[in-house]
Amino acid sequence: xxxxxxxxxxxxxxxxxxxxxxxxxxxxxxxxxxxxxxxxxxxxxxxxxxxxxxxxxxxxxxxxxxxxxxxxxxxxxxxxxxxxxxxxxxxxxxxxxxxxxxxxxxxxxxxxxxxxxxxxxxxxxxxxxxxxxxxxxxxxxxxxxxxxxxxxxxxxxxxxxxxxxxxxxxxxxxxxxxxxxx
Length: 182
What we know:
single chain; mainly beta; four-stranded antiparallel sheet; 14 strands; elongated; disordered N terminus
């Protein structure tokens, strides 16, 4: 096995709970899993990190998966349906930087983050985070303080209006870096 294949992310999805039924192994993004499985009730992440979505094309509710076993998708993740798409999260080995803005289109108060923030209101006196610019690293943003509630995966790029990103009127109140040690 080469060193590059040892570092490759890999997840196995199963049609039934407790890793039963047909399975599908994945090591990259998959926008529509329906051609491989009729449903997905459990999964096992062997290496790396993934975001899974309850709708195709990386939309709908999101859930972060790291190395481990997820034997009953419904009870553990609280998602109403099964996994329909997944996105592999590349491991980042450098610094982390993200600038958050109180209003859409990079307006209002702004703050730059280089570390996790468990409560935007307490740390920055911001009542809302409506847009952001991820300069370095990969992040998870949560709708509640203390890394709780619905989440969204943010990779490097500009996000002018996070409310238009399939989160319908949600505001982000905490942010966490995705790292090897997560």
